[in-house]
TrEMBL record:
It comes from Streptomyces lasalocidi. The keyword tRNA processing does not apply. This is O-methyltransferase. Gene3D superfamilies: Vaccinia Virus protein VP39. PANTHER family: CAFFEOYL-COA O-METHYLTRANSFERASE 3-RELATED, O-METHYLTRANSFERASE-RELATED. PROSITE patterns: SAM_OMT_I. The lineage of its organism: Bacteria, Bacillati, Actinomycetota, Actinomycetes, Kitasatosporales. One of its GO terms (molecular function) is S-adenosylmethionine-dependent methyltransferase activity. Pfam families: Methyltransf_3. One of its GO terms (biological process) is methylation. It comes from the Bacteria. Keywords: Methyltransferase, S-adenosyl-L-methionine, Transferase.
Length: 223
């Protein structure tokens, strides 16, 4: 087997035993594919990790930046208590429509609100509502704006909250300090912000698997 085939096989084994899709999450994937959404969402193993992180946090309020078809949203929302709330921000009205159908099928539409529009416009409006601090923020949107999303996450969280930033490896291109690509520049700026900000303590992990070579960053908000 090639290296990538080994990654896929290991991912499939872990998924089968630790995070298999059920009827609801499998239907969300099918619906997203049928609607022509790009296959860039989290894997089942990654979704289960998000769910576990939210549960470890005891999260009652979750913010997601980048909904896509709502697959990661379902994993996160399932970690909430009955009175919990999740707000997900999605740029594309078409993606949001698919996500809302998937969330309704999952029975989570009463706890999850999908807001449509550019996140950098939605976030100030959200802040103006003075919501309770979010216990977990999952950032998986346009990578060029990653540092802005981290800054907004800081404004909308509390000491002890967790920020998860997805897709930080960029196929290894994140190490290229001379890159002019927006995704690389934005990701590097976010990583360096996390590393230098006095209110954040973070790390980043490289991963391999069904989505290839990638990774994520975790940052805990300090007092």
């Amino acid at each position: 087997m090639s290296e990538s085939q080994v990654w896929d096989a290991v991912d499939a084994y872990f998924t089968e035993h630790l995070s298999p899709d059920d009827e609801v999450t499998a239907a969300a994937l099918r619906e997203s594919e049928a609607a022509g959404l790009p296959p860039i969402g989290v894997t089942a193993n990654q979704g289960k990790l998000l769910q576990l992180l939210a549960q470890v946090q005891g999260a009652r309020c979750i913010l997601e930046i980048g909904t896509l078809g709502g697959y990661s949203t379902i994993w996160l929302a399932r970690a909430l208590p009955p009175e919990g709330r999740l707000i997900s921000l999605e740029y594309s009205p078409r993606h949001a429509e698919v996500a809302r159908r998937n969330l309704a099928r999952a029975g989570l539409d009463g706890q999850v609100e999908v807001r449509v529009g550019p996140a950098l416009e939605s976030l100030p409006r959200l802040a103006d509502e003075n919501p309770p601090p979010f216990d977990l923020v999952f950032i998986d949107a346009d990578k060029g704006n990653n540092p802005h999303y981290v800054e907004w996450a800081l404004r909308l969280t509390r000491a002890g909250s967790l920020i998860v930033l997805d897709n930080v490896v960029r196929g290894g291109r994140v190490v290229d300090a001379d890159s002019t690509a927006e995704d690389v520049r934005g990701t590097r700026a976010a990583i360096e912000l996390i590393g230098s900000h006095p209110r954040l303590s973070g790390t980043a992990i490289q991963t391999v698997g069904g989505k290839g070579y990638d990774g994520f960053a975790l940052a805990r908000v300090l007092g």
